Amino acid sequence: MNRLIRGAIVAAVALAIVAGKASERSTTPGQPKEPTKADAERMIRAAEGGLAPVYAPLAEEIVERLTLADREGVGIDVGSGPGTLILELCRRTKLHWIDADINPYFFPYFLGQAEAAGLGGRVSAIRADACALPFRDHFADVIVSRGSFPFWPDLQQGIAETLRVLKPGGLAYIGRGLPERMPLETARRLRAERGEGPKYDPDETEQQLRAVMKTLGLEDYRIHRPRPNNPEGVNYGLWLQFEKPRR
Description:
Elements: H1 3-21, H2 37-48, H3 52-66, E1 74-78, H4 84-92, E2 96-101, H5 107-116, E3 123-127, E4 140-146, H6 155-165, E5 166-177, H7 184-194, H8 202-215, E6 221-224, E7 237-243
């Protein structure tokens, strides 16, 4: 991507942020606690440690399923935290990626890692609530999120915001857990070291996602359940994939 195009994208990001802030939406009552530096440091340690094997195969899976290798424009990772997934996506796509996270204490680490990897000109960061994204309508080409939606104040509102911000024909990949291509032994070891995280029923979560999609009037979507019947009984999680309807 040449400097002129990159500069135009960065300018568009700034305009989107300004436009989004002018029309921020309110979230549900009972806001979560204010994020802290300690929260960010804890997640950074996890991303560098036990979760490190997740990001590269997950990025490969996202690029393949959404056909992103030659796509240009803007991608947003909602709840990206330390931005490890973004860096892997940068290595595999031509998109400019934005770390949209509610905790700004992640951003110095994320931007430093991007610079060290030679990707500093291809990323941005902005403090963002998933249920009130600070971007204008029809802005992003791709929105992804790993492990964030269980903490959104309102799942339906978060997915509705994803739809609002996506361009017509824009793509989304939202979920929790592990990539299907992760070897079973690696997944078993990761779960044994870190535990399953917050407990949840994948069947119940799938039904919640289907109910949200029905309410939003979206019929063309897929829910991926990686290796649901593996012999080790490892929970690989689940992923929602959809495209915003074209005009």
